Amino acid sequence: MLKRDADRGPQSIALPKALFARPAKEDEIAPIRETILAKLALSVGKNPATASPRDWYMAASLAARDRIVHSWIEANRAIRKGNSKRVYYLSLEFLLGRLLGDVLHNLGLTETFRAALGDLGMDLDELKAAEPDAALGNGGLGRLAACLVESMATLGIPAYGYGIRYDHGLFRQVIKGGVQQEYPETWLSFGNPWEFERPEVIYDIHFGGSVQAASTAGGARVAIWQPAETIEAVAYDVPVVGWRGEHVNPLRLWSARAVDPLRLDAFNSGDHVGALTEQVRAEAISKVLYPSDATAAGQELRLRQEYFFVSASLQDLVRRHIRTYGDIRSLPDKASIQLNDTHPSIAVAELMRILVDLEHVGWDQAWDITRATFSYTNHTLLPEALETWPIPLFERLLPRHMQIIYLINAHHLEAVRQAHPGDERLLASVSMIDENHGRRVRMGHLAFLGSHRVNGVSALHTELMKETVFGDLHRLFPGRVVNKTNGITFRRWLHQANPGLTALLCEACGEELMDEPAAIARAAALAGDNAFHERLSEVRLANKVALARVIRERLDIRVNPHALFDVHVKRIHEYKRQLLNILETIALYDAIRAQPTRNWFPRVKIFAGKAAASYSEAKTIIRLAHDVAAIVNNDPSVRDLLKVVFLPNYNVSLAEAIIPAADLSEQISTAGMEASGTGNMKFALNGALTIGTLDGANIEIREHVGDDNIFIFGLRANEVAERHRRGLDAMGDIAASPMLAEVLDAVAGGAFSGGDRDRYAHLVGIVKHHDRFLVAADFDSYYLAQRMVDEAWRNPRRWWRSSVLNTANMGWFSSDRTIREYAEDVWHVPARGSRVQPN
Ligand code: 26V
Asked: N6-(pyridoxal phosphate)lysine: which positions carry it (predicted)?
């Protein structure tokens, strides 16, 4: 049963006090207290007696924001004075989560604010929980963007994040009777204290119309785009505060606005709705975040979103460049633009348009400037996720860009023809136009060709890029594809999410850990130390008790905090194989009932994650998790040895409560399909052991933590590819696994659906007959790996040794390391602690 406060954050969690946190600055407590009171009265318009926690959150945030502004202005001044090169990170998603805790922590003001609020009778943690998550992203890609911009600020890199200020972020998930329902998310409804509206920073964004050819006075031929529609992009800046507040960068988010707020003539003649249609159409662009796995419906709006934010961002940075340096030709020396996936890749054509049509740079030079400026990160190789646009749509919405893309393609194909005469297969494969599925523009190819570096996000993923989707392009442009394994910011995912563990690690590794993630390696010396294990287990238990309370409050289910917490949280997708986990849960349930006297240890299987609204298989997986939970949790013969819970509305804040409480981290994607994963890193950093496939960054995690400290199972990526080539044979796998056969029969036979055989017929049918994700092939190996987990859990010394070695070996997975690699190899900008020094 859902409780009324189910959507509130994990505010009720009593975490161990942050021993490592900077102590309150005595002389600042009183001024901050006064500022908070002044903000409450003058900006929020409330008095302390009637103010709600949300009002206090607003007042405290505005007080914290004041502290940022000076460093921000100073950072800007220094960048301008130093003529430093800037990095522009273009991303359709920034999954920021809550910001108050982040800002206070990075400013070193957490304890000072706690004391100031305490004087006023308020509790900082309660205020923090009143902040809505900024959920401007779907999952891994958006959260990565948030970690990377934080690391850029921390390393003092002059950078702008550019994105869209969605009125509504990722939908709120409510589960009714096991069925996911989506509700709009309303993070802005009470105002956003972290943003600065910039009403003076506005750009016109054009769509549609036609292109005319004309000649200049000098006889040069030029193209003139006469658009049919114009809307406005208005800037909102959110400060991104680096560690210790030494550097602050802007995250500039664009909001769409109609040029005219309403058609007054229509309004006056009584057509009140018609008078607003243009406004509604224009503002639809920044109305809502796309769940990326959406269907073709609404595709046009998505393309409009992409061009909208790209055009505004390029106009903004080109204007800044020309104002400062006077000449667009020096752009690559002073600006590096990172494309976060293909969503912003129309930027390649847009920059060409600006250079050629507006700045009158010759084509070849424009192309050199473009390639030297852009670089592109690929985040998935799944064919259904690779972005392509139907040419008729593209032509209608962006006619001049379509021409430019044809021209780029013509030059490119001509060069390929010269180098490889007669190779028609090669031409078709590297062309920006896909002729096989109705003519479409391949955005990945556009981004690849327009960039000097193209990167994957883990070692395996990068190798697969070179072999598969970008194989031919890689051979044509050797050296362009590089790897930049993802990372996570320790400030959020260790210091803030797990203050108890951070305090212990500071004792073990020294306070330097707070500034240098690599210092965490020193904890390895304590891997065999019983006393350290004891203290770690106390911290973990406290985190588990806190999570157990969240589970009780939200689901009315009691779980034993001494049980093994086995956690599978991420978007629900067939390739991530939550289904494999649920099927193993059923097998375990059967085994417990068959051998009730074996020495089982209690386990809690924890799931959370959202399914795209249109993704019916994923929604059915959620339903199955609930159906299995209902049976297992209420079966007295299980005697609480197994519990299954599905926490609704997974988001960044919930992740911060779940991850520090995990004993086991499920990273069980079909090998070759998860580009990297970053949750895997968060769990290992917090001391959970991983059960996983050799996929994405799991491979590098294994290399760092050692074979003995991770549970690897299943087919390798090359074996998966081989099975796909050879033809899938799940029926063979099922015939070889009586256990799996029994589990599938039970599900299909209605054992978990009150006898309803229809509910899971399709899902079971997929496993049996179209098992692209090789659930059947990996089942036995996964079941065995889980029994190895049982074995290891029985031996606490061994478990805690592994846990310490996981945490101690995660320094390399700091996003500071990731950003240093981008800075050196892709952007060519100096970063603190990097080998490239300022010139
Ligand atoms: C999108 C779609 C849309 C169509 C249906 C299938 C499908 C599958 C996956 C995706 C995800 C697209 C991009 C993305 O979020 N990639 C994630 O990026 C993370 C950061 O690099 C990385 O850790 C994850 O492994 C990767 O899935």
From this structure: 682
Active-site residue identified among 353, 400, 570, 626: 570
Atom of ligand 1 nearest to the CA of 696: 25
User: Would you mind telling me the total number of residues written for the chain in this entry?
Assistant: 839
Q: Which residues contact 835 (CB under 8 A, 6 or more apart)?
A: 824
How distant, in Å, are the alpha carbons of 150, 212, 228, 304 from that of 207? 34, 15, 6, 8
The three-class DSSP label of residue 215 is strand
Q: Is 570 a catalytic residue?
A: yes
Quick one: tokens of 277? 């249609």
For residues 549 and 245, give the distance between their C-alpha atoms in angstroms, rounded to a whole number: 34
Q: DSSP letters along 299-318, please? A: HHHHHHHHHHHHHHHHHHHH
Whether 571 is a known active-site residue: answer yes
CA 380 to ligand 1 centroid distance, Å = 5
| Nearest-angstrom CA–CA distance, 344 and 346 | 6
**Greater confidence, 416 or 384?**
416
What's the half-sphere exposure (Cβ side, CA atoms, 13 Å) at 813?
31
In the chain the domains, ranked by start, together with CATH numbers, are 18-82+100-135 (no CATH), 83-93+136-486+820-827 (3.40.50.2000), 527-806 (3.40.50.2000)
Take atom 10 of ligand 1 and give the residue whose Cα is closest. Answer: 385
Residue 216: the pLDDT is: 79
SS (H, E, C) 558-622: CCCCCCEEEEEECCCCHHHCHHHHHHHHHHHHHHHHHCCCCCCCCEEEEEECCCCCCCHHHHHHH
What three-state secondary structure class fits 21?
A: coil
Helix axes 616-633, 761-769, angle to 10 degrees: 110
Q: How far is CA 137 from CA 81, 340, 582, in A?
A: 34, 12, 27
Minimum CA distance residue for ligand 1 atom 13? 379
Question: From the CB of 382, is ligand 1 less than 6 Å away?
Answer: yes
Q: Is 724 a catalytic residue?
A: no
pLDDT-derived band at 12, boundaries 50, 70, 90: very low
Question: What is the model's pTM?
Answer: 0.96
Which H or E element spans position 86?
Answer: strand 86-90
User: Does 678 participate in catalysis according to the annotation?
Assistant: yes
For ligand 1, atom 1: residue with the closest CA: 385
How many Å apart are CA 618 and CA 519, to the nearest integer? 41
* Alpha-carbon separation of residue 80 from 146, 191, 197, 242, 243 (angstroms): 25, 31, 22, 19, 22
* Residue 305 near residue 342, CB atoms below 8 Å: no
Find the helix or strand (DSSP H, E) in which 336 lies.
Answer: strand 335-340
Structure confidence by residue, pLDDT tens digits, 393-441: 999 999 999 999 999 999 999 999 999 999 999 999 999 999 988 899 9
CA 570 to chain centre: 10
Contacts 24+ apart (CB under 8 A), 277-282: 282/231, 282/232, 282/256, 282/257, 282/258
- For range 495-505, the mean pLDDT: 98
Q: Is 513 helix (H, G, I), strand (E, B) or coil?
A: helix
Q: Mutation test of ligand 1: which of 380, 670, 683, 701 has the most ligand atoms closer than 8 Å to its C-beta?
A: 380
617 CA distance to ligand 1 middle (Å): 17
Q: Is the CB of residue 7 below 6 angstroms from any atom belonging to ligand 1?
A: no
Strand 229-241 to 196-207 pairing: antiparallel
Most confident of 74-78, 274-278, 729-733, 803-807: 803-807
- At which residue do the structure tokens 């305090």 appear? 503
- The radius of gyration computed from the CA coordinates of the chain, to the nearest angstrom, equals 27
Q: Would you say the CB of residue 669 lies under 6 angstroms from ligand 1?
A: no
Ligand 1 contacts CB of residue 364 (under 6 A): no
Out of 98, 165, 304, 379, which one is annotated catalytic? 379
Residue 11: what pLDDT?
38
Share of the chain above pLDDT 70, in %: 96
